[in-house]
Hints:
There is one protein chain. 72% of the residues lie in helices and 7% in strands. It has eight helices and five strands; from the N terminus they run ααααααβααββββ. It has helices at residues 2-22, 28-55, 60-82, 88-113, 118-122, 124-146, 153-177, 183-205, and strands at residues 149-150, 208-212, 221-225, 229-231, 234-236. Strand 2 and strand 3 (221-225) form a beta hairpin. Helix 3 (60-82) packs parallel to helix 6, helix 4 (88-113) runs antiparallel to helix 6 and helix 6 (124-146) packs parallel to helix 8.
Amino acid sequence: xxxxxxxxxxxxxxxxxxxxxxxxxxxxxxxxxxxxxxxxxxxxxxxxxxxxxxxxxxxxxxxxxxxxxxxxxxxxxxxxxxxxxxxxxxxxxxxxxxxxxxxxxxxxxxxxxxxxxxxxxxxxxxxxxxxxxxxxxxxxxxxxxxxxxxxxxxxxxxxxxxxxxxxxxxxxxxxxxxxxxxxxxxxxxxxxxxxxxxxxxxxxxxxxxxxxxxxxxxxxxxxxxxxxxxxxxxxxxxxxxx
Length: 242
């Protein structure tokens, strides 16, 4: 029963994220598909926790934390943007979550550097890369609370976090089902492709940036001219100045 729930909701998660990318950004269906992706990912991670425990794969614990954080953070970014006034409690919870994902990333890196089994040795590069992703996202979010931000930074963070969460879902699907492909390739290929999209969008977005004064708690901000990146016929970014 638990396996069936995991498979059904995992399939829905794999379908919901591309649907959110293909509809108008910020529109009703974009939000609906986005929430569908977040909820289905929550069920997938919850059910997977019991399945991983039965198999005794300790390395899946930090990976699950990183995946969950990426999915949640994609929504927290937009919530922080809309929230007025600022909430110390919610900001504290977000910082605590970022610290937790940094710890999970360090845990994954530890298992990669000092593997205790042949399985860990075979996927050590993937564990090291995923750990680095968790650490980089966590550090970026922690520093964002205490340093300067970009006026369009929420958009970049929202896009990057949810694409990274989708990468984790695709990776899990390939690891379980793509039996004919080498194990290491199943772990690395989704991150390589998805990471390239994130990097390309970031570079296009921040290509034109200059500082502007701000009286907010974030200090000085950056004004950004959004670039455009075409992905499967869909243009990310508007080309306008924020």
